[in-house]
Design brief:
single chain; about 290 residues; alpha/beta; Purple Acid Phosphatase, chain A, domain 2; 6-stranded mixed sheet; 12 strands; about 30% helix; about 20% strand; binds fe (ii) ion
C-alpha cells in the first residue's frame, strides 16, 4: 500500500491557499492512507481546519499531536485539556484515528505512533549541561517553555508517553497477524535526526529535538521496518543497524512553515520519496523563533 506521511503543517490562515494546494497535490497521488504526525495547527480551531482540509487526501486517516498543538497562548485551552481530550476529539470528528492512544492496522501492517516528547537524551555531545539546566534554559531557547503548561516536566512527559507507546508497540510485535510495523512520531527517536547539524551556536537546542531513549527501546521490536518523524523541519535519512535483523530505516519530513512536504511510502517496495508543496513564500532565516 501507499501511505502519505506529513508533519509540521502549522496551519495558519494566510497560508491556506498554499496548504490547500499541497493537500490537492497529495490527493492527486491517491495514497491509500494519510498520516499527519503533529504540529497540525494551534489554537484548536486551526487544528480542526487543518484536519478538515486534508480529509479528502485519503480514505483512511490517522493523526497524532505535536508540541505546538498543545500550546496555550492567551485564553485558549490549556495544554492539559488539549492533550487529554480536545485533540483526540477533533481527530475523531474529522475521521482520523488518534495514534497517540491507539494503533492502526492495515492488513498485516501495524502502525504505532506517538508525540514522543523529548527527554534531553538527544543533547549535543560536548555541551556540558545537566538535564536540570536544560529544563531551566528551555524558555530562552524554545517556545514550548512559554506555552506548554501541563503539570509535568519534559522528562516526566517523555516517560509517560513512552510507556504508553511501548505497550502499544509490543502488542503489535506480539500479534501473529502483524508481519511488519511502521512507527510514526512527532519528535525523532534516532541520533542523526536532530535539527542542528554543524552549527555550534544552535546545537544546544538539539536537546529539545529527539528522544533517543525511546529509539533504543524500539530496537527491541524486530518487526519495525521504518520510522517516520517530524518536528525538526529538515530532511534526514538514517540507517540504524540491528543485531540479527534487517537495518531500520529512519526518515524525517522536511515540512517547514508555509512550505509543506510529505514522505510517500510504498510498503510493497519500502521506497520512500518526498513530495513537496509549492515554493515557500515565507523567507528562511527568521522563523526559528516559532519552533
Ligand atoms: Fe513543527
Ligand atoms: Fe514540533
Amino acid at each position: 500500500m501507499r501511505i502519505a506521511i506529513t508533519t509540521d503543517i502549522h496551519y495558519h490562515p494566510p497560508w491556506r491557499d498554499r496548504i490547500e494546494a499541497f493537500a490537492e497535490h497529495l490527493a492527486a497521488r491517491q495514497p491509500d492512507a494519510l498520516i499527519i504526525a503533529g504540529d497540525i495547527g494551534e489554537p484548536l480551531d486551526l487544528f480542526h481546519e487543518c484536519l478538515a482540509l486534508f480529509k479528502p487526501v485519503a480514505p483512511q486517516r490517522a493523526a497524532l499531536a505535536g508540541n505546538h498543538d498543545v500550546w496555550q497562548r492567551g485564553a485558549a485551552h490549556t495544554s492539559l485539556e488539549l492533550w487529554e481530550e480536545l485533540l483526540e476529539e477533533a481527530a475523531s470528528l474529522h475521521g482520523y484515528a488518534w495514534l497517540d492512544r491507539t494503533n492502526v492496522v492495515f492488513g498485516g501492517l501495524g502502525v504505532c505512533g506517538t508525540i514522543a516528547w523529548y527527554d534531553y537524551s538527544g543533547k549535543q555531545p560536548g555541551i556540558n549541561l545537566s538535564d536540570d539546566e536544560y529544563e531551566r534554559l528551555k524558555p530562552m531557547i524554545s517556545n514550548d517553555g512559554r506555552y506548554v503548561n501541563w503539570p509535568w516536566t519534559d522528562r516526566q512527559m517523555a516517560a509517560r508517553v513512552g510507556e504508553s507507546f511501548l505497550e502499544r508497540l509490543m502488542a503489535l510485535q506480539e500479534d501473529p497477524a502483524i508481519s511488519e510495523i511502521i512507527i510514526v512520531s512527532h519528535v525523532p527517536l534516532f541520533d542523526g535526526c536532530q535539527r542542528y547539524s554543524g552549527d555550534p551556536n544552535r546545537e544546544i537546542a538539539n536537546a529539545y529535538y529527539a528522544n533517543l531513549s525511546l529509539g533504543r527501546r524500539v530496537l527491541e521490536a524486530p518487526k519495525v521496518r521504518s520510522v517516520f518523524s517530524g518536528h525538526v523541519h529538515v530532511e534526514r535519512a538514517v540507517t540504524v543497524t540491528r543485531n540479527g535483523s534487517t537495518p531500520l530505516e529512519v526518515y524525517t519530513n522536511p515540512s517547514d512553515y508555509g512550505r509543506p512536504a510529505a514522505l510517500m511510502v510504498d510498503t510493497d517496495t519500502w521506497a520512500v520519496s518526498i513530495l513537496r508543496g509549492p515554493e515557500p513564500f515565507m523567507p528562511n532565516g527568521n522563523d526559528d523563533a516559532l519552533v
